[in-house]
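Changelog note: in this version the structure field was regenerated for every chain. One regenerated record is shown below for reference.
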Amino acid sequence: MSNVHLVGGLDIAELTFFAFFLFFLGLVWYLRGEDRREGYPTEDDLTGAAHGGTETDSLFFKPAKTFKLPHGHGEITTPTANDRDELPSNVLPRAWAGEPLDVVGDKLTSGLGPASISQRADRPDVDMHGQPRIVPTRLIAHPVTVHPNDVNPVGLPVFGLDGAAAGTVSELWMDRAESCLRYLEVALAGGAGSVLLPITMVEVSRGGVITDAITGAQIAGVPRTKSPDQVTLLEEEKITAYVGAGYLWATPERAEPLI
């Protein structure tokens, strides 16, 4: 026993490697636990029953954490203390786990698939000063103008992917925090009110504003805002989901396979 070696041929480089490996393993374990605060506990694909959580998988799930929101917007606790989203009722029942949902009724407002939304707060997004972040340019104190080299969309007709006219652009909505346009306010034909179209889903030219996402008739169905001067986080979800879902569901042909 006089010739026992406790560490054998280990040197500083090997010890450093093992220390890094253990640190990295611990970091991955910590991050995989923290990322389960959002979107968890998971649900059964067929029944919707919740499974997994702090009570049953304490080895992997962290205890619920409460976050204090800025500007007096209260607190939010994740992942177990918040109200769960209701199971969709506008779909046909699945025959097996993993089967795609078949929407019943208007697909663009179904809240499922490409039209799915997150249940965000029904209040406006705010800037660092606590003021509504996205507002029509008419409410901005300093002058906001379109660069002379660009086409000013205000006053231009708005067309759907089928070429049908839906109305005219009446106002631009600006993100004051990032100084960029977010929405075009469209005054619908016949005095049917106004809707917001995401600027990223339209093409502006001197001949008019065209969206390749939805048809002219479907533009009138874009979810409305409660206030004419601001848009809430939840309303933004519904608007972008409705228009974005048109890339798959606007026409029957789009929902079919290419081959």
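Spot check on this record: The two ends are 76 Å apart (CA to CA). The longest helix spans residues 12-34.
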